[in-house]
Amino acid sequence: MQKIINLYCLLMFVALVPRPAEADVDYGIDVEKLTCIGYFDQIGELNKTNKQTAALLTYWLFGYVSGIQNSAKLTQSRYLEFHNLLGDHCKKNPNELLLVSVRKITLKK
Length: 109
Prior knowledge:
Elements: H1 2-16, H2 22-25, H3 36-49, H4 51-68, H5 76-92, H6 98-108
């Protein structure tokens, strides 16, 4: 009998847990199709509307770079250096695919 009561309480708890708003559920970005200018436009827009997704995209990209460099070290200076290099490269090549640009500046080092 106690198991049934516990199960009932669990089901009631799950039923009463508030669900996130539809817009908060999932926000997908196909990074393979994103251009340099598209990335910075996307980050600018997300910073106005959804800072968590903007941060997620930026950190995902830095993780991608770390994978290319075979490095698990996360430092603010390394992150800022990467982001500045990417910004400079993308200003010169705004229509280049973002991941192509990332590989170019990562493999230059």
